[in-house]
Design goal:
Elements: H1 8-15, E1 27-36, E2 47-53, E3 61-62, E4 64-66, H2 69-74, E5 84-89, H3 100-103, E6 113-120, E7 126-135, E8 142-148
Antiparallel strand pairs: 1-2, 1-3, 1-6, 4-5, 5-8, 6-7, 7-8
C-alpha cells in the first residue's frame, strides 16, 4: 500500500474548498508595494502604488491568529505580542496564480520602496501591517508574521 502524493496544486485546491461557514479561513491578504521615483522613501519623490491580492486557485481567504508565547520564544525574540501569523499560504507552484515575488516582493538596490500587507476581515475592514518574518521552508505551506503599522491607508 503506497501513499498518495500531495502536490502544492492539489493542496491549494483542498485548502480553498473549506466553506466560510466554519470560519476557518477568515481574512483576505493584499500585498501593497509603494515605489518612489527617487532612491529614498517619501517626498520629493512621487509614489506609485501596486496592490496584489494573494489568492489561491480557488479562493483568497486565510487563517489568522495572534502570535503565541511559544512562537515568541521559538523566534528568539524576533516575534512579539500583538503580531499576527497568517497562513497556511500555498507556496508558488508551476501553473499557479501567484509567484514568490508576489508574496514577498524583493528589494531592489537604489529604489525607494515600501511594502505593506493588508489583512481584510469579513466586514471589509483592512488593517495594514509590515512583515516581521516569513516561514517559507516548507514545501506545502508558508506563513507570514505581520505587525500592525497603525497606518490607516499607506
Amino acid at each position: 500500500m503506497g501513499t498518495l502524493p500531495i502536490t502544492p496544486a492539489a493542496l491549494d485546491a483542498i485548502r480553498t474548498q473549506y466553506p466560510n461557514d466554519y470560519a476557518l479561513r477568515t481574512v483576505a491578504l493584499t500585498v501593497r508595494v509603494k515605489t518612489w521615483s527617487g532612491t529614498k522613501v517619501g517626498p520629493p519623490g512621487i509614489a506609485t502604488t501596486v496592490d496584489t491580492v494573494i489568492a489561491g486557485t480557488a479562493g483568497n481567504l486565510y487563517k489568522i491568529r495572534a502570535v503565541t508565547q511559544k512562537d515568541i520564544v521559538a523566534s528568539g525574540g524576533k516575534y512579539q505580542a500583538g503580531q499576527y501569523r497568517v497562513g497556511p499560504i500555498t507556496p508558488p507552484f508551476a501553473g499557479g496564480p501567484i509567484t514568490a515575488d508576489d508574496i514577498i516582493p524583493p528589494k531592489i538596490a537604489g529604489q525607494g520602496r515600501e511594502v505593506y500587507y493588508g489583512v481584510t476581515d469579513a466586514t471589509g475592514t483592512t488593517q495594514w501591517c509590515s512583515m516581521v518574518g516569513a516561514e517559507t521552508m516548507h514545501a506545502l505551506h508558508w506563513y507570514l508574521v505581520l505587525k500592525p503599522t497603525g497606518t490607516e491607508n499607506p
